[in-house]
Amino acid sequence: MQVERKAKMIIDKDYRIGDIDPRLYGSFVEHLGRAVYEGIYEPDHPEADEQGFRRDVLALVKECKVPIVRYPGGNFVSGYNWEDGVGPVELRPKRLDLAWRSLEPNQIGTNEFVSWAKLVNAEVNMAVNLGTRGIDAARNLVEYCNHPSGSYWSDLRISHGYKDPHRIKTWCLGNEMDGPWQIGQKTAVEYGRIASEAAKVMKWVDPSIELVACGSSSRQMPTFPEWEATVLDHTYEQVDYLSLHQYYGNPENDTPSFLAKSMEMDAFIQSVIATCDYIKAKNRSKKQMYLSFDEWNVWYHSREADAKQQPWSIAPPLLEDIYTHEDAVLVGSMLITLLRNADRVKIACLAQLVNVIAPIMTEKGGGAWRQTIYYPFMHTSVYGRGTALRPIISSPKYDSKEITDVPYLDAMAVYNEAEEALTIFAVNRGLEASLLLTCEARQFGDYQLVEHLVLESEDLKARNTAANPTAVTPYSTGGAVMADGVITAQLPKCSWNMIRLAKRRERE
Prior knowledge:
By secondary structure, the chain is an alpha/beta fold. It has two domains: about 5-15 and about 390-505, Golgi alpha-mannosidase II (Immunoglobulin-like, Sandwich), CATH 2.60.40; about 20-385, Alpha-Beta Barrel (TIM Barrel), CATH 3.20.20.80. It contains eleven helices and 25 strands. The strands form six sheets. An eight-stranded parallel β-barrel has the order 3-4-7-8-9-10-11-12, surrounded by six helices. A six-stranded antiparallel beta sheet has the order 2-15-19-20-25-22, with helices on one face. Strands 16-1-21-24-23 form a five-stranded mixed beta sheet, with no helix packed on it.
């Protein structure tokens, strides 16, 4: 008989990590596979609006309240001429995209994507090409997007039908420039120099913008973390964020190790913070460097199918991972990890948004549906706004093949003072038994339970598909109770949980 596991947690209003930047719940749309064409844009679709954007996709994105979307890449950006994607559509060239061995028709470009982002109430996180292009193209794009009028590039934008500047605030200085797969791969010194100079002139064009410098392509790169230190040596005073990228998979079907991968993510973040702070001290700087975790997700299901794709077609089905229940649980823990580091991680982008390793999937001419990972992403984005509180957790632990001392309970709390709401996000990593959580909510004695939402499945490999889009969906009858400031909740095995509380209102 399985002995019931128990965990304890203390939350206090005064145990604050920091304010959560809404951009922590950003995402990513790259010109890759079916992310753009047949994803956000399908003019012949029954749900298409007058601009060709799919209304069903728009609705699912808006449901997540995604505040910022990175664009147009990714590996794609390192070979992209942004001028190909503006002006009359019928005059735009088709180009070979070497990054993904596809044909890019350039039917969607900068202006169209900005228009799409406005429809979903999101900002654009624009990436510039520092692979095949450089300083001149970068500053010209800032001028095209953000300068009001009276200059060559701003007047060209106006002639293309966009009188008002786009006012794009956040810009990425290239993408994964240490990767041998990258067009225009550079050494840390080469990248640091061009990033510094590009940053300088981009801010001369528009001093209000914020810039993200490329960190290592992942924690596993041989360049990490020396790359970060060298790049920051060149760019520390010119940029505002340093990027992190990380994906996890479970190809060996070792679920206990897979569900513990968020601990590696936390260690990665801490290593980058330490490197940033070392350069700060070395340079005697008073500036705090923040982080942009602008690519993160589970990614491994589609690799075999991708290898079979014929090159040079438009919008081939690439990186179309169909996610499982256990993927959703890990994604929940990764979101908890981002919240745990909200004092330094200010931007994060779930990679990606539609069809390509994405929470939203579509069929050409058909429907759109939510993947399993959609739910923890949506829950945290909608209810994880406010201040991240540092919980004190006591949990039993387990050892996996790869990682030891893994707590069964992974949890974070978010206090929204303006809305007088408290939300607890919790994962039970245990595969055999439920976990009894007892949470002392200090200074929240006048709050009451609103909802205990649970995402669970007896089948860890259960998936949502076009044929069965609701195979894995959350329910809101989790059974948590609150009495005298103490929350008690049974967390099912291998589950994602959201427990919401609100201040008790006096009856009028």
